Amino acid sequence: RRPDHVSDTINKGLHEKKSFFNVKSHVDLGDQTASRESKVISPAFLPSPPHGKSKDINKVKFTSVQIKKPKKIGKSPDNQIFDAFMTEAKQLKDQIDTKKTEEELAHITTLEKKQEEEVELFVQSRKDALRGQIVETVNRFKQ
Fold first, then answer.
1. What is the dihedral of CA 54, 57, 62, 67, to 10 degrees?
2. Contact 107, 113 (CB under 8 A)
3. 3-state SS class at 29
4. pLDDT in tens, 53-95
5. Is 51 helix (H, G, I), strand (E, B) or coil?
6. Exposure winner among 60, 73, 133, 143, fewest CB in 10 A?
7. DSSP 3-state helix, strand, coil percentages of the chain (rounded to 5)?
8. What is the CA radius of gyration of the chain?
9. Is this prediction's pTM over 0.90?
10. What value, to the nearest 5°, has the Cα angle with vertex 24 and ends 31 and 94?
């Protein structure tokens, strides 16, 4: 199934009888969005259906849309820049995620240590109190 924004653009292209139109694709990276435009042939200008088939564009099913890529002499600088940007953005996102996880883990261990210390202090105070009571009781019996 085609993404909605592509279908909308194709329908617009049919309506305006354009031979080419641009389809924007977006990649969401959390707080940044990378976008790239592709030139797409309007289905109205694709080869006409075989003889005898319906000429009505709305009744013709197009299984694929051709994406016109710029003629490549080596690798087009636009694509290289875009790929480099995407790679860098992904690395940044991974770094941020890792840092967040590390911070969360550090916070959890700090909390756990605090709780352990508090429990130890409580246990120690109870032991001291009980020891005190025992000493008092023994002293009372001695008298």
1. 140
2. no
3. strand
4. 544 555 544 444 455 554 555 555 666 777 778 888 888 888 8
5. coil
6. 143
7. 60, 15, 25
8. 35
9. no
10. 30
